[in-house]
Specification:
By secondary structure, the chain is of the alpha/beta class. The protein is built from ten helices and five strands, in the order αααββαβααββαααα. It has helices at residues 4-13, 16-26, 32-66, 114-124, 135-141, 143-160, 192-215, 221-224, 230-239, 247-258, and strands at 71-77, 86-93, 125-133, 167-171, 181-184. A five-stranded mixed beta sheet has the order 3-2-1-4-5, sandwiched between helices. α4 packs across α7 and α5 (135-141) packs across α6 (143-160). The termini are far apart.
C-alpha cells in the first residue's frame, strides 16, 4: 500500500487527467490523510482552471471588441505620486503564441512576480514601448496634456517598429488622442494588451524609483515609489524637494508643513 506521503506528493503534481485516475483508484481509501490530499488537489486544479479561463477571457474580450484588428494596448502608471515620472506602456501582443500565464493588471500581480512576467510580455510582443514624462514637464503642462503626449509618443514608437495598429485600446476615459482610440473602463483587468502595457510600465517605473533611492537617499523612494508615504513626507518636510519631485503636487503639503 502506498504511504499517505507518497500519495500526497503524486496528487500535488497531478494534472487534471491524472487526478481523475487517482481519484477513482483512491475513492475507497478511508485514510483521512488521503482524502484530505484528494480535496486539496481538487481545489488546486479548480483554481488553475479558473486562472486559465481568466487569462483566456483577457484575450477573447480584446479580440471581440477590436474585431480581430491589429491592436495596441496603452496604460499609464505614476499619475498620482509626489515624485518621479509619469510612465506609459504600449504593447502589441502576437497572435501566434500561447496566452501569457499570469497576465493581469499589474496591481493584481505580486511584486516579486512582476519582473519575470514583464520580460515574458516583451518576448511575446510583436512590438512594445515605454515612455517617461519627467516631473518638470508635468508641472509645466499639467497631467492631462502629459498623458496625451505620452500615449501619442508610445504609439509613434510602436509604429516606428514597423507595426501599424488599427485599434488603440486605452484604459479609462476618452482622451481623444487618435481616431483609432477605443476606451475600456478597467481595461487593465479586461484586455490582454492593456494588462501587458500596465505591467511593463509598472516594472520599468518601479525600477527607476528604486535607483533614485541611491541618488536621493532618505526619501523612501525604493519603498514608496514616489507616493506620499509617511517617511517620504517627513523627508520633504526636513530636507526639501529633489529635482525629481513634482512641485505642483507638493505645494499643499509644503504649505501645511509651514504651519505645523
Amino acid at each position: 500500500m502506498q504511504t499517505v506521503s507518497d500519495i500526497r506528493k503524486r496528487l500535488s503534481e497531478a494534472s487534471a487527467e491524472e487526478y481523475a485516475v487517482l481519484e477513482r483508484s483512491l475513492c475507497a481509501d478511508t485514510r483521512k490523510g488521503v482524502q484530505n490530499a484528494l480535496a486539496v488537489a481538487k481545489r488546486r486544479l479548480a483554481a488553475e482552471q479558473a486562472e486559465r479561463e481568466r487569462v483566456s477571457q483577457l484575450y477573447s474580450y480584446q479580440e471581440q471588441i477590436a474585431n480581430g484588428a491589429v491592436t495596441v494596448g496603452l496604460d499609464e502608471v505614476g499619475r498620482g505620486p509626489l515624485a518621479g515620472p509619469l510612465t506609459v506602456g504600449a504593447v502589441v501582443l502576437r497572435k501566434d503564441v500561447p496566452p501569457i500565464e499570469g497576465l493581469n493588471d499589474s496591481k493584481q500581480v505580486p511584486e516579486t512576480h512582476r519582473p519575470a512576467l514583464a520580460e515574458t510580455v516583451k518576448e511575446r510582443a510583436l512590438a512594445w514601448s515605454i515612455v517617461n514624462i519627467e516631473p518638470s514637464e508635468i508641472d509645466e503642462c499639467g497631467m492631462t496634456a502629459c498623458l496625451r503626449k505620452a500615449f501619442r509618443q508610445a504609439v509613434a514608437e510602436i509604429e516606428a517598429q514597423g507595426v501599424e495598429p488599427e485599434v488603440i485600446l486605452l484604459d479609462g476615459n476618452p482622451l481623444h488622442l487618435d481616431p483609432r482610440e477605443m476606451n475600456v473602463v478597467h481595461g487593465d483587468a479586461r484586455c490582454a494588451s492593456i494588462s501587458a502595457a500596465s505591467l511593463i510600465a509598472k516594472v520599468s517605473r518601479d525600477a527607476l524609483m528604486v535607483s533614485y533611492e541611491k541618488e536621493y537617499p532618505g526619501y523612501d523612494f525604493a519603498s514608496s515609489k514616489g507616493y506620499g508615504s509617511a517617511r517620504h513626507r517627513q523627508a520633504i518636510a526636513e530636507k526639501g524637494l529633489t529635482p525629481i519631485h513634482r512641485v505642483s503636487f507638493c505645494q499643499n503639503f509644503l504649505q501645511e508643513s509651514l504651519f505645523d
